[in-house]
Amino acid sequence: MEMDGLKGFMKKMKIPDMTKDTGNKGQSIKAINKALEEKMNDKAKIYGFIGMEVYDLSKEKQIEIAQIKNYLDQMDALNQEIEELEKEKAELEVKNAGKNICTCGYKLKPQDRFCPNCGEVISREITVCVCGAKIDKNMKFCRTCGKSIEEIQKAFEPAQPKMRECICGAKIPEGQFMCFECGRKIE
User: Fold this and answer.
1) d(Cα 112, Cα 161) in Å, to the nearest integer?
2) What's the whole-model pTM score?
């Protein structure tokens, strides 16, 4: 392809013309490194556009290049795998809709705001009551069993240990035999 043909292709694909001289003389190494990084990113974009164009043309039977047939076959296989994974994901999302299950598969408690397994932020449009009914986030009571949302959340909260007070004023959990603040033995 001639240079004019390449520029026409780049214009058609809305690829910026990077053949212009940017005049980097007299700049710092940091500035030159930044300019180099930008040029390398632009180069990667052009490779991507060329690849997409060749792939589309080969699918339309407008171009056939024997050397890249293997890559095109690999791309077809990847597209098939992507399609299958997207279908599987959609099925799982429908299956788990309204349940307290994270995208990683971990069973969540109603009060969880982050998944304890993977750390993902939990979106709470709908939760599931202890009785199994779906509860909208704006509801104050379960419409099936009548429990309040606060009561449901408390059911899943870990029990707080009973606390005692040391002579120094520190709070000490029941069963602890020594104050970690002052070092006294607790009886």
Assistant:
1) 21
2) 0.38
CA 34 to chain centre: 28
Structure tokens at 166: 């040391």
Q: What is the SS3 string spanning the chain? A: CCHHHHHHHHHHCCCCCCCCCCCCCCCCHHHHHHHHHHHHHHHHHHHHHHHHHHHHHHHCCCCCCHHHHHHHHHHHHHHHHHHHHHHHHHHHHHHHCCCCECCCCCECCCCCCECCCCCCECCCCEEECCCCCEEECCCCECCCCCCEHHHHHHHHCCCCCCEEECCCCCEEECCCCECCCCCCECC
Residue range 85-124, pLDDT digits in tens: 888 877 776 666 656 777 777 887 777 778 888 888 776 6
Amino acid identity at 36: L
pLDDT tens-digit series, residues 157-184: 556 678 888 888 888 888 787 887 887 8
**Looking at residues 132-152, what average pLDDT do you find?**
78
d(CA 148, CA 68): 63
Please state, in angstroms and as integers, the Cα–Cα distance from residue 100 to each residue in 32, 127, 144, 151, following that order: 52, 6, 17, 17
